[in-house]
Amino acid sequence: MGHPLSTAIADHVTRQSQAWKEITTLTFQDFIAKIEELNQICRTLTDSRQRRLVFKPCNVTDTPVLWKSTVQVRCMRVSLSVPAAVESYRLLSLRQFLQSYNMVKAYHSAATASRQEAASGGTEKAFSTSALFDSLGGEDKSDLEECCVCMERKPEVTLPCTHSYCLFCIEQWNVSNTTCPLCREEFNTTDETWVISEAPASEEVLSEMERALVEISTKHSSDDDDDTS
């Protein structure tokens, strides 16, 4: 039997790998179709204050190969008053949008079941657009700021294949595996990883630039003196 923690991480990796596979195989046409499907679903999910969610693609590049890295989806909470108004919005990355897509569909299924229950004499549960809106996307983090396994902690090491993980997750994975959790490229130990250092403070960068400029000017000055002697 495997280590329980390692098994739990392996299960989580499987789920995350499926999410990455969904992103990898997603075509632009499928992406637009999912947005249209969500908007159609959300037309039936209007809360007691006459508000619903609307999804709209943005930052769509003209280069087909790069669209997945640049595209975002604007998730808007819209009041259906006259005239209609956008109360608030948030930008979702492609991964966050796909998570939201599955979440909204789950909400829709639950709302449909609630209506059927109410029709049979039960009590229909109140739907809150705000609760759904607040649950979509979560914190606006870049994929590069998240461990590819837990999607919570910041990555601390990068494997030779360039996938990044927090030290805890990759060490637990490495107990019984010698491949990258995502692409399955071989690596022997965590000694083969690159440590991701913290970005220097702006003051440090400015200080280093000033020092380098002084060195350059000093060197040029000494070179000029040598040329004239």
TrEMBL record:
GO terms for molecular function: ubiquitin-protein transferase activity; zinc ion binding. GO terms for biological process: protein autoubiquitination. It comes from Ornithodoros erraticus (European soft tick). Keywords: Metal-binding, Zinc, Zinc-finger. It comes from the Eukaryota. This is RING finger protein 141. PROSITE patterns: ZF_RING_1, ZF_RING_2. Residues 147-184 form the RING-type domain. InterPro entries: RING-HC_RNF141, RNF141-like, Znf_RING, Znf_RING/FYVE/PHD, Znf_RING_CS.
